[in-house]
Design goal:
It is built from 3 helices and 2 strands. The protein has 89 residues and is mainly α. The chain has one domain. A two-stranded parallel sheet has the order 1-2. The protein is globular and about 40 Å long. It is found in: Cell membrane.
Amino acid sequence: MINNFFKKLLIYPVKFYQKGISPLLPPSCRYYPTCSSYMIQAIEKHGPIAGLVMGIARIFRCNPFLRGGHDPVPDHFSIFRNKNPKKED
């Protein structure tokens, strides 16, 4: 129950960003799913602490020096890019 509270507490600002701030900015995320969607998925899949760490690591990877591309949330905790992503249909 407390875990769900913290998940919602962390997801709410990301959803606010997606709906209220992101539409005002030019698209800039180099990854699919976007960094904000990745953060939400990581928190839902791995819990609030590990998901937040994974989401922050993903934001740091989203820069002009890395190639970007398809990078879904991995099944196991990792702060590195998903090396073997499964293509979603």
